[in-house]
Amino acid sequence: MAQTDIPFKMEENDLVPRFLVRAMLGLIAFTLLTVGYARLTGKANTGVLIEAPIVAERTINLVGTREGAVTVTDLDGNLLTYSTEDKNGFIGVVWRVFDRQRFVEGVEKVAPVRVVRRENGNIAVLDTATDTVVELIGYGSDNVAAFAKLID
């Protein structure tokens, strides 16, 4: 492409056009000004998750294998489901999060977790061994349903 085909002026050694650099710096400045204004005026955080009270819960055990298959049982050892069943794969994902956190903190790997339904309808999984909370919002309806059916 010839130099005359470029719709904006660029120096020969520039990797990024100057107007893009200025636009990025302008965006940074706008963001800092907006956040600073919100903090100074005491504007409430509107995008922050509010933990509603728990209305239903079930304590379960998640026992996984190296291959990622997770068996879900109640505290008496009764089988509830497998992560390999249709639309239950997200159970394995959450198990890996807890397994990794327990490894990092040196906590027992087979400690039970709580699946809770909050007053506002949100589902959460709480690992009381590490105080890790996974609020299941924004993960898709099938992924949330995999845990919601454990409470129902």
Question: How would you summarize this macromolecular structure in one to three sentences?
Answer:
The protein is α+β, with helices and mostly antiparallel strands and 152 residues long.
Describe the structure.
A hairpin with a 4-residue loop joins strand 5 and strand 6. The protein has a 6-stranded antiparallel sheet. By secondary structure, the protein is α+β, with helices and mostly antiparallel strands. The chain has 2 domains: 3-41; 54-151, no CATH class. The mean pLDDT is 87. It has helices at 18-41, 89-105, 141-151, and strands at 54-64, 70-74, 79-82, 113-118, 123-127, 132-135. It is elongated and about 70 Å long.
The helix count comes to 3
Overall structural class, as computed from helix and strand content, comes to: alpha+beta
Mean pLDDT: 87
The description of the largest β-sheet is: 6 strands, antiparallel
Total domain modules = 2
**What is the oligomeric state here?**
single chain
Helix content: 25-40%
Low-pLDDT segments: none
Strand order across the biggest sheet? 3-2-1-4-5-6
Rounded radius of gyration (Å): 24 Å
The end-to-end distance, rounded to whole angstroms, is 63 Å
Large-scale geometry: elongated
- Percent of sequence in beta strands: 15-25%
Q: Return the string of H and E elements.
A: HEEEHEEEH
Total number of beta strands: 6
Characteristics of this structure?
152 residues, alpha+beta, 2 domains, six-stranded antiparallel β-sheet, 3 helices
Helix/strand layout:
Elements lengths: L17 H24 L12 E11 L5 E5 L4 E4 L6 H17 L7 E6 L4 E5 L4 E4 L5 H11 L1
Antiparallel strand pairs: 1-2, 1-4, 2-3, 4-5, 5-6
